[in-house]
Each structure stands twice: as C-alpha cells, then as structure tokens.
Design brief:
The complex is a heterodimer of chains A (605) and B (351). Chain A has a single domain, classed as Cytochrome c oxidase-like, subunit I domain (Cytochrome C Oxidase, Chain A, Up-down Bundle), CATH 1.20.210. Helix content of chain A is 60%, strand content 1%. Chain A has 16 helices and two strands. By secondary structure, chain B is an alpha+beta fold. In chain B, 45% of the residues lie in helices and 16% in strands. Classes of the chains: A mainly alpha (605), B alpha+beta (351).
Chain lengths: 605, 351
C-alpha cells in the first residue's frame, strides 16, 4: 500500500524538532522510568496482560469448583496449598478468588490496561503531538498503577487471605474482620491498592484530557478527531468525575475499619457482642460506590468501542457511518451513566419512586447504544471488508455489545430485576456486555496497533485461531449462564448442593466450565503470539492496514517526539475510505484537498 | 514432587506453543506469504462467520428448549405472574432484535468481504436513516418503561392494613421468622437486647411483642396478603424467594419490606413440577460470609386451616408464664418449670 511522504506537513511546531538531537537514554530511563508515551503504553499493556492471566487463572480455579463441586482436584492443593487442602477449594478462598478476579479484571485490566495502553499510545500519535502534556505525570500514572497491582497481588499471599467481600466490597461485610476472614489485612491492602489505582487513573485521565484539548496539530479540529480519541476523551472525563467519589467511599470505609467511625455501620451484633457503631448506613456506601461503579462500566466500554470504530472503518475500507452520531451517542451515554447508578440498588429498600426514576434513565441508555449498533451495521453494509484478526475481534465486540446490551433492558427494569437481581443472569449479562466486549475491543486494538507499538506484525494464523476459540469459549460460557440465573441460582455461592432446586446450576455449570477452560487455554495462544512476535514477528511496513490516521505517518522506528522534522498538518477527517474518484481506497488525513480534486465532495476545498 | 511435575508440565506446554508459533511462521514463509491479509483469509473467515452464525443460532435454540426444564416453575405469587408475563414480552422483543442484528452482522462480514480493485460504497451519513433508528428504539423503550413502571408501582405500593406482618430476620448464616400474632404488630426489637435466649433482641417491655411467635420455618396461608419486614443483625443479607419472584435486602440498622400474595400451595406446586419432594425456599442472595451458600430457610405455602394448626404449635417469643404448679407436682415437673421461669426471667422482672 502506498505511503505518503511528509511533504504535506506544514511547519506548525517550530522549535520542537527533537530529531536533530538524539536522546541517549540509559536502560533505566528508556525501559523503566520512561516518560515516552509509547513506552509507558507498552508498560501498561504488559502489566495488564500479566494481571489478566492471573485473574483468568483464578476464574478457571473457581470454574473447576462450580463445574464439579464433588470432585477433588489434586492440582488445587499443589497450587493453592492450604486453600486447596485435599484437592478441595476452601469456601472462603472461593470468595476471595471471585473478589480478586473481579477487581483485577474491572480495574487493572479493563480500566488501567485498556485506557492506559491505548490512550497513551494513540492520543499523542493520533492528535499529532510530540508526547503527552506531561510526560512526568504520565510516568507517575504508570508507577502508581504498578504499585497498585503489586499490592493487590501481594494480598493473595497473606495468612488470612485477600479481600473476599466481592469486588463491590459492600460494608458491613467488608468492614468487619469478624464477618469474614478476608476483611482483615486483606481488605486493608485492597483499599490501599485501590487508592493507588485511583491516583493513577486521575493522573492519567487529566493528562489525556489536557493533551487532547491543547496539543492537537494544525488542522486537527475536534470534528476531525478519530473516534478513538473522542472515546478516550470522554472516558477520561468520566474517570475524573467519578473516581474521586470511589476514593471518598474507600477512605470512609478505611475510617470505619481502622478508626471506629460509623459512616456505614449501625446496629450491628456480631460474634456474640453488639458493636458500638451507630448512626451509619451501609446503603450510603452503595450510593457512593455505584456513583463511580456505573460510569466505570463505560470507562471500560467506551475505549473499546472507540478502538472498534477505528478498526471497523479502516478494515471495511469505508467511512464510519454517522461519525457525528457516534460522537453524540458517546456523549449521551456518558451523561446518562452518571444518573443510572440506582439500578444496582432497586432492592436495597430504596424509595420505590426513586427506583422509578432510575428505571427511566437506565432504559434511555439503550437508545444511544442502539444507534451505535445500527451505525456499525451500516458501516459494514456494502463495505469491502478485510478480515484481519483485529477486524474479527471488532465484529465480535459488536456481537457481544448487542447480546449483552439486550439483556440489560431486562435488568434495568426494576419490576423484572426483583427476581433476577444478584443471580447468574446478572453475571452472564455483564460478562458479555462489559467483560467480553471490552476485552475484544482490547484484542482488536492490540492486533491492529501491534505494528505501531513494536514495529513487527503478529502472526495472523495464530490470531485467527485465538479469535475463533475465544468467541466460542465466551458464548459457550456466558449464554448458558443466563439459564442458571433464570433457575434462581444466586451468584457468589461456593456450591449449589445445599438446595435441590439447583439442578440447573449443577448440570449447566459443568458445561460452562468446559467452555471457560477452552476459552482460557486459547488465551495462551495469544500470549505466546504476543511475546513471540514482539521480537521475532515479520517486520512491519509503515502503514500496514492502509489507514488514514496520523499514527501511521510516523516512522516505524520509535522516536522520542514521534515525527522527525515537523509534525504533519491535518487537512481532512479520518474516514475518507473508499472515496469515489480517488486513486486509492484511502486518503490519509495529511493529504490536502488541493491534491485530490477528482474525489472532493462539494464544499471540500 | 507433584509441584515439580506441575511446573514441568506448564513449562513444556509453554515450549510447545512457542514451537507451534515457529511452525506457523515456517508455513507462512514456505508459502512466500507475509502477514498481509489475503483474499483467502477473507474467504475462509467469512465462511466461518456464516457457519458460526448458523451453528451458533441452532445451538442456542436447542439449548434454550432443552434448558426449559431447569427454569423456575410458574410464579407462586400474584405479582409474580404479572412480572413473568412481562418478562416473556421482554424476551420476545429482545430475541427478535437479537436475531435480526446478529444475522445482519455476520452475514455482512461474509457477504462484503474484500475484493481487490473493488471499492466500498461511500456512505458516510444518512440523516433520515439515523432519525428512523433513533426514534423506533425510543418509542419501543417508552412502551417498556411505562409498562414496567406500572408494574413496579403496583408491586411496591403500600401494603393493605390487614396484611399479615412477618419479620424475616437474617444473620450469619440462617433465617428466623417472627409472626406479629393476634394484634398484627411486631414488638420493638433492638440489637443491644440480643441474648442467647432472645436471638432477635425483642424488647420484652413492649406489649406488642407479647404475642409474637418465632419460627424456624416460614409458613404462609395460600391466598393471604403478607407483608414481610426484613432485618439483619450483622451484614447485608438478601431475602430471595425465587418462587414468589420476591427479593429484598436485609440491612442492619433499617427495616425494609416486601408485600406478597402467595397463590400456590406447596402441594399444588409439587403436582405442577411433578416433583413430590419439591419445597419452597428462602435463600440468601447477597454475599454475607463464608457459609453464604448454605443460608436458607424452608418455606411452606398451605391452606389457611393447615396454617392455623401449624401456627398454634409455634412458640411465643417469650414463653408465657404457665399456671402455677400444683403442690403435688413431682420433682421432674418442678425442674421443667424452673427452667421455664429462668427463661421467663425478664418478663417476670419487667412486671
């Protein structure tokens, strides 16, 4: 595919010519305490992959327990020691596993890993900036993230076990060590880790917003930004507005636990004695938690949708349908995400009228979501689709977004939520719409931008095998799970043997576990492909997918400052694919209209 | 030893996949290909999308029909019948949307695969289309919102005054029920009054509590109106009655409630499900500690006469002082009564 020279670039950033004086980085400043957004992005990605493997491994362990509750697995004792005595998983460690699995996946993989990797990689490269607004804060952001991951991982190895009150850590369970062993030191470490994580997310988020708003290259107006950047911008704003609330919630919980305050505690009698706490409300915590928690869902999902939009348009060789509607729907989703948190709390005893308001706002989210799906379908219609592994994952994302989004209509309706709240129906719903969608967006991003990150290609065959095994694994795991929920099986149960009505849970769970293990093993193919291709993949050309966006105009070799010479100037939007009259099926953003007179539409001069 | 073996197995697996990568790479090089996506890749994966669509859809339909036997039986409460039919309306709707969109998605992925020298249809925007597919979901959702909220408002409306009051009390890791008795008013309770003999901390000075009865099974007369009042003494529990389609959290420091009208007796449900051992159950559905998964209570829905009979046999919260023993009572009786007076200590003292 043709590569455009840099002649189009017009000087706009005089004095920023980093090319002429090469930095001589030491190992420490290049690979460890790097302030280069590209290196920080890779640090985030590799850390996230390691954490994801850990969390996935945990899920496989509890899938063994759920699938075959009466079976002994000698391997459990080998791996877990006294938590897996005689090959039986310890019930309190089961709860610890689901808690830490959820925490790692939601926060470390799909928030830190996804935004951290791709906001860092793509924001400066796609808006045409030398680096993030503050390289130093960016570095801090990663190291806070790293410390946070380290503390969370360390909590797995303490005597009483890690936090085990569920990833939503509702007090009083999370506040009282008497209530569950994991609410001792494990919970303290969880909270400290989360405080670090929030610091990281805020440092990152502020940097992303500032960079996008201030460091766009000449000609890069807001309406010429690729949808990835819009998604990262909105995500960062969501994070900045909502994470401090989680910080406050965590801080108050820390006070209740360690200093005897009563923000969340009242009227408690436990272990044969009444506690002195009085006047607090456990429901307050839920309000604070979900005020973050619901926007968090979109913090996870929007970057994935942004990446998918970019991949789908590029590989369809066709402009994204309804660019402005895509931005608009993301803005509407982001706004609504702040006023729907109550749908997690319909049955907490909340005033029913307040519940009604949350039903209304929640179901409204389906409108912009539907618009997004229809726009993706319209983009694929009469396209010229290149089924690269990234494109396959992007299509998979759309499929999950539909499947999981639809069951959200049921869960968001308070009258229906009464009976399926906290059952496996919910687990199935959010693993499809949030977990799998977002992770597929992340995979799409990794396969698509791997050449941009490492200058090499990932093996496409391994990519295809990875895709097919994973999509089969995901649907095979989470589709049947809806029925476990509809049979009335609550989540976070160690076993379903205590009540005979749980035949469904028992029988279907074995099937689910088989698919989960299949899907889990498939990820090893990805991991090997990733690390193998990093050093031994085929060398990438500058613009392997024939993309329009700016990151593909920078040389394959990474430079501090991204472009040798001036930063290119932008002349058009990012989606001139398949334009009638053009010589090629793509026109990069750096090509001025004066060079494409044959294909210009009315008004494009 | 096993640890060592496990490590070896893991290491070998990693090496195997690593070598497989090398094989894939050699195959690629032998064929003179690079990592560019070829028409053949598109063809194969496009076809696989179609196969995935067809087999996946058939698999889902088969599984759904097969899994029907696992679903909860017909709702045993008045509101449950309504929410169930509303649930089916929702399912009908989302299944239609699901099939249409997924079929289009995977069909397009196959149909419009890349051909060299061909260009996609340049179609960046169409405001009319966008308007249509914004308005249609909006209208449908408004319908759902109105229907759903009507149900919700009815379900959560204040219970009628004559509804039987039952306290459902959660603690790690069991349930206790307290019936309000003849006055249909529960006596006050306070967590500070909890003792081994007064597990719910019922205030013995409150006259309303005198006729309260505590039970370890939950019995409901069929066709009655019941208002549950939920309490917890330690952590948040959730009282989940899957067969009644009812659920409410039990939160320490506050009272929550849920109104139900049970409509099907345990015996009838045994006939409906064809399972002679069927029993209703109250489960805990909010993670509450290590034995969360075992926290449950048997529930019986029975004809009013049976309920009355059962209720009569249940213990009052504070055993009532029995008539003074006759002087001729033998030793054994005295011991029994003595034990009783110790239990009644508080009542006697309060008087």
């Amino acid at each position: 595919m043709s590569t455009h020279s840099h002649d189009h670039a017009v000087d706009s950033h005089a004095g920023h010519d980093h090319h002429d004086h090469e930095h001589h980085d030491s190992f420490w400043t290049k690979y460890v305490f790097s302030q280069d957004h590209k290196m920080i992005s890779k640090q985030f990605l590799v850390t996230a992959i390691v954490m994801a493997l850990l969390a996935m491994f945990m899920s496989l362990i509890f899938r063994l327990q759920l699938g075959w509750p009466n079976q002994k697995f000698a391997i459990l004792e080998t791996v877990l020691g006294h938590w897996g005595k005689d090959g039986r998983l310890d019930p309190s460690f089961y709860l610890a596993l689901v808690t830490i699995h959820g925490t790692i996946m939601v926060f470390f993989v799909l928030t830190g890993g996804l935004s951290g990797t791709f906001s860092n990689l793509l924001i400066p490269l796609q808006v045409g900036a030398r680096d993030m607004a503050s390289g130093f804060l960016n570095m801090l952001s990663y190291w806070f993230f790293f410390i946070s991951c380290a503390i969370m991982t360390a909590s797995l190895f303490i005597q009483a076990g890690p936090a085990s009150a569920g990833w939503t850590i509702y007090p009083p369970l999370s506040a009282l060590p008497q209530a569950i062993p994991g609410s001792g030191l494990g919970m303290t470490l969880w909270l400290i880790s989360m405080v670090m994580f929030i610091a990281s997310a805020l440092l990152g988020g502020i940097n992303y917003v500032v960079t996008i708003l201030n460091l766009r290259t000449k000609g890069m107006s807001m309406t010429r930004l690729p949808l990835t950047i819009w998604a990262f911008l909105i995500t960062a704003i969501l994070g900045i507005l909502s994470f401090p609330v989680l910080f406050a919630a965590a801080l108050l919980l820390l006070f209740d636990r360690s200093f005897g305050t009563s923000f969340y505690l009242s009227d408690i009698f436990i272990n044969g004695a009444p506690l002195a706490h009085s006047g607090g409300s456990p429901i307050l915590f839920q309000h604070l938690f979900w005020f973050l928690g619901h926007p968090e869902v979109y913090i996870v999902l929007l970057p994935a949708l942004g990446l998918a939009s970019e991949v789908i348009s590029t590989q369809s060789r066709k402009p994204i349908f309804g660019y402005k509607a895509m931005i608009g729907s993301m803005l509407v989703i982001a706004f609504l995400s702040f006023i729907v948190w109550g749908h997690h709390m319909f049955i907490t005893g909340m005033n029913p009228f307040l519940g009604s308001v949350f039903v209304f706002t929640t179901l409204l989210v389906a409108i912009p979501s539907a618009v997004k799906v229809f726009n993706y379908l319209a983009t694929l219609w009469r396209a010229n689709i290149v089924l690269s592994p990234a494109m396959m994952f992007a299509i998979g994302l759309v499929s999950f977004f539909i499947s999981g989004g639809l069951t959200g209509i049921i869960l968001g309706d308070s009258a229906l939520d009464i009976n399926i709240h906290d059952t496996y129906f919910v687990v199935a719903h959010f693993h499809i719409v949030m977990g799998s969608s977002a992770i597929f967006g992340m995979f799409a991003g990794i396969y698509h931008w791997f050449p941009r990150m490492f200058g090499r290609m990932m093996n496409k065959r391994a990519g295809y095998i990875h895709f097919w095994l994973t999509i089969v694994g995901v649907y095979g795991t989470f589709f049947p799970m809806h029925f476990v929920g509809l049979s009335g099986a609550p989540r976070r149960y160690y076993a379903y043997t205590a009540y005979e009505g749980f035949d469904a849970a028992l029988n279907i769970n074995a099937l689910i576990s088989v698919f989960a293990i299949l899907g889990g093993l498939a990820q090893l193919i990805f991991v090997v492909n990733f690390f193998y291709s990093m050093s031994r993949g085929k060398k990438a050309v500058q613009n392997p997918w024939g993309s329009n966006t700016l990151e593909w105009t920078a040389p394959v070799e990474h430079l501090h400052g991204n472009w040798p010479g001036e930063i290119p100037t932008v002349h058009r939007w990012a989606y001139d694919y398949g334009k009638p009259g053009a010589d090629d099926d793509f026109i990069p953003q750096i090509v001025p209209y004066s060079e494409t007179t044959k294909s210009n539409l009315p008004g494009e001069v | 030893m096993i640890k060592l073996l496990t490590l070896i197995v893991i290491a070998l697996a990693a090496v195997t996949i690593w070598r497989l990568m090398r094989v894939l790479e050699l195959v690629r090089d032998l064929r003179g290909e690079d990592e560019e996506i070829t028409d053949k890749d598109n063809r194969i994966n496009g076809r696989l999308f179609l196969w995935f669509l067809v087999i996946g859809m058939l698999g889902m339909i088969y599984f759904t029909i097969d899994a029907k036997k696992y679903l909860l039986p017909v709702a045993a409460s008045k509101h449950g019948a309504l929410t169930d039919s509303y649930l089916y309306i929702n399912f009908a709707l989302i299944i239609v949307v699901f099939f249409i969109t997924q079929i289009l998605l995977f069909y397009f992925a196959w149909k419009y695969q890349h051909k060299k020298g061909q260009k996609a249809f340049f179609y960046p925007v169409d405001h009319k289309l966008e308007f249509i597919w914004t308005v249609i979901p909006a209208v449908v959702l408004m319908g759902l919102i109105v229907y759903g909220l009507k149900l919700w408002i009815n379900i959560t409306a204040p219970a009628p005054k004559d509804a039987m009051v039952i306290e459902v009390y959660g603690k790690q890791f069991d349930w206790t029920a307290r019936y309000a008795g003849g006055d249909n008013v529960l006596g006050h309770s306070n967590f500070k009054l909890i003792t081994d003999d007064n597990q719910l901390g019922v205030d013995s000075t409150d006259e309303n509590g005198k006729d309260d009865k505590i039970t370890r099974e939950l019995h409901l007369p069929v066709g009655s109106k019941v208002i549950f009042k939920f309490h917890s003494r330690d952590v948040i529990h959730s009282a989940y009655f899957p067969h009644l389609r009812a659920q409410m959290n039990c939160v320490p420091g506050m009272t929550t409630e849920f109104f139900v009208e049970p409509t099907i007796t345990t015996d009838s449900m045994r006939l409906i499900t064809g399972n002679p051992k069927f029993d209703y159950v109250l489960l805990c559905n909010k993670i509450c500690g290590v034995a969360h998964y075992m926290m449950k209570m048997k529930m019986v829905i029975e004809p009013a006469e049976d309920f009355k009979k059962w209720y009569k046999e249940q213990q009052y919260v504070f055993a009532r002082p029995e008539p003074a023993p006759a002087p001729s009572a033998n030793t054994a009786d005295t011991v029994k009564i003595a034990a009783g007076t110790v239990q009644n200590g508080k009542i006697v003292a309060s008087k």
